[in-house]
Amino acid sequence: MSKEFYHKKKWGQHFLNDPNIIRKIVKSAEIQPGEHVWEIGPGKGVLTDEILNYNPQLTIFEIDPFLIPYLQERYQDVLKSGKAELIHKDVMKTNWSDYIGSDKIKIVANLPYQITSPLMFKIVDYIEHFESVTIMIQKEVADRIAAKARTKDYGNLTIMLNYFFNIEKISKVPPHLFTPAPKVHSTVIRLTPRDDSPEVTNINDFKRVVRCAFSNRRKMLRRNFRDIMTSQQIDHISNNFDLSRRGETLSEAEFIWLSNTFSSIN
Ligand code: SAM
User: Fold this and answer.
1) What is the pLDDT of residue 4?
2) Which pLDDT band, with edges at 50, 70 and 90, does 205 fall under?
3) Is residue 3 pLDDT above 70, yes or no?
4) Predicted pLDDT at 5
5) 3-state class of 97 per DSSP?
6) Which residue from 5, 22, 8, 6 is spatially nearest to 186, judged by alpha carbons?
7) Which of 10, 188, 194, 208 has its CA 20 to 30 A from that of 266?
8) Is the preceding peptide bond at 180 cis, omega within 30 degrees of 0?
9) Average pLDDT over the chain, rounded to an integer
10) pLDDT (average), residues 112-136
């Protein structure tokens, strides 16, 4: 790697430098030989090396053009053999269908903090293709995912991820285990799709209702729902639900009830 490489803040380049954490992240993904793994943001390849020890079929997404020649050289053998592919793209602007095969995919990544939330929502949109998601994220985001109702952290991300996934905390990671050290602590989590998610009539309505309920946290549901419902629909729902409540007071079951009721009159 050229000595001139400098870490770019805009791409969240905090590279891991602790072999134990690297091993722990990859081990907890439980990769079997030949399984399809996506790594998002390999940086200089510390996780990539460990992932490759498990002999998977690997797809790597990296946005930084300065890292691409380095990664191409470092992984030339495995790239040539077809056991890995390196995609020089912004993972958020990539059409994921182009890289999804017939096998389910495990994601393993030390994520750039800037894209964590939008990436999680994108993963939800493709959930049927993923077997697990093992990622390092900012502790604050992990706290939002684990938040309880009636707290400031409870929101769209909490409801969505807990509806679709079982979520386990694997490890806390302090800033000094990265280069350069970030200002915040990190957490490794593993998400596995639930097979017991309660049924909703229309999953897109569910996503819209939850998103809309939190679009303005300080406003009542009645006001927020005006963006997606007619006044007749709001009146209909208000016969059986107190729409003067705010999104942060609702349980998953209540969101499902609202969404199913909305679907039945939409
Ligand atoms: N995996 C390495 C490690 O653990 O040391 C690097 C992790 S670093 C937190 C995040 C990596 O994601 C960087 O290599 C960065 O260039 C890359 N990245 C940032 N935004 C990206 C995006 N939108 N699409 C693909 N890669 C991205």
Assistant:
1) 72
2) very high
3) no
4) 81
5) helix
6) 22
7) 194
8) yes
9) 97
10) 97
Ligand 1 center from residue 90 Cα (angstroms): 10
* H helix or E strand, kind and range, residue 50: helix 46-52
DSSP tag of 6: -
Tokens for 251? 């349980």
CA of 117 to the centre of ligand 1 (A): 15
Decide: 43 in ligand 1 pocket, CB within 6 A: yes
CA distances to 121, 208, 224 from 217, in Å: 19, 15, 9
CA-nearest residue for atom 23, ligand 1, is 90
Alpha carbons 68 and 87: distance in angstroms, whole number:
9
* Residue 183 identity (one-letter amino acid): K
Q: What is the mean pLDDT of residues 137-151?
A: 97
Q: Could you tell me if the CB of 50 is within 6 A of ligand 1?
A: no
Atom 19 of ligand 1, nearest CA residue: 11
Residue-by-residue DSSP string for 140-197: HHHHHHTPPTTSTT-SHHHHHHHHHEEEEEEEEE-GGGEESPPSS-EEEEEEEE-S-P
Rg (CA), the chain: 21
Q: Is the pLDDT of residue 1 over 90?
A: no
Residue 118 Cα to ligand 1 middle (Å): 15
CB count within 10 Å of CB 1 equals: 13
Largest CA distance in the chain: 67
Say yes or no to pLDDT of 21 above 90. Answer: yes
For the stretch 95-121, pLDDT in tens is 999 999 999 999 999 999 999 999 999
Amino acid at 3: K
| Angle value at C-alpha 218, between 215 and 220, nearest 5 degrees | 80
CA angle 217, 220, 224 (to 5 degrees): 75
pTM of the model: 0.96
